[in-house]
Amino acid sequence: MEPIATSLEDKIWDAHAKSYQSWILVLVLFAVHLWVSRVDWIWGASARQLLSSGALNAQRIDNGELWRLSASLLLHGDLVHLVFNALAVLALGRLSQAIFGWFRSLEILYLSGLAGAFLSWSMGATRTVGASGAIFGLLAALCVFGWKYRDEMRGELGDLLRRRLLFWGSVNLFVGLIIPNIDNPSHFGGFICGCLLGAIVGHRWDKMWDRILLAFPCILGIWCTIATI
Q1: Containing domain of residue 132, as a range?
Q2: Which end of the chain has fewer CB atoms within 10 angstroms, the N or the C?
Q3: Are 198 and 144 in contact (CB under 8 A)?
Q4: For the domain that residue 113 is a member of, what is the CATH number?
Q5: d(Cα 122, Cα 224) in Å, to the nearest integer?
């Protein structure tokens, strides 16, 4: 008989060993990529295909195509872009699911992605795709969670959340500033939103009121997506 986990870190590690739902999201990302790119799945869809499929374009959103704010999160430029984002979604998603639960993790991903898309829109983006903003938001939420519960997590997991994830997140934000053709507004928008959500959301064994709180903006985003297609 396995020992019952008592500390918060033990509970999270036990939940992490059983958290596989992130694979569903990864499969969705690959399915969308194959559907949009067709035979050119390695090099990715053309600029015209991406734009018609939902790439973020400020002018078109100004004309009422709000659905692009959500659709652009599922699109990727090429296979390399997709693989890197899929690996990040899988690694961070499993950890997030173990801490926040699957429903909260989806809410954080979606709202952070929307925040990044909104900032890109405000900066006049012409053709932006990718889940990077959502990924940065999830990373930020995990970092903030680690600091918020630092008294309960003094072991390896606490160090991972508070220091190593924050380090790699900062490095990637900096890399985005020096490499051209990277949607930095999306990264920063998602990261800032993730910090706010990380301060609000508790762990999966805590009170559940925050799930309902986050559901309202998610429903609004989904409604705007459906209503403006």
Answers
A1: 8-227
A2: N
A3: yes
A4: 1.20.1540.10
A5: 17
In a domain, 93, yes or no: yes
Residue 1 scores a pLDDT above 50: no
Tokens of 114: 């929307």
> Residues 134, 73: contact at Cβ < 8 Å?
yes
Instruction: Tell me if 45 is assigned to some domain.
Output: yes
Which helix (H) or strand (E) segment is 184 a member of? helix 184-200
Query: Considering only 23-37, 119-133, 170-184, which range has the smallest mean pLDDT?
Result: 170-184
**In the predicted structure, residue 61 carries a pLDDT above the cut 80:** yes
What is the enclosing helix (H) or strand (E) of 153? none
On whether the pTM is more than 0.70, the answer is yes
In a domain, 2, yes or no: no
What is the domain count for the chain?
1
Domain assignment present for residue 1? The answer is no
Across the chain, what does the average pLDDT equal? 91
CB 78 within 8 A of CB 50: no
**φ and ψ at 125, to 5 degrees?**
-55, 140
Maximum average pLDDT range among 138-142, 210-214, 222-226: 138-142
Query: Measured between alpha carbons, how far is 138 from 222 in angstroms, rounded to an integer?
Result: 19
Residue numbers annotated as active site? 132, 187
Token pair listed for 16: 């992490």
Q: Does the pLDDT at position 4 exceed 60?
A: no
Q: How far apart are CA 128 and CA 182, in angstroms?
A: 9
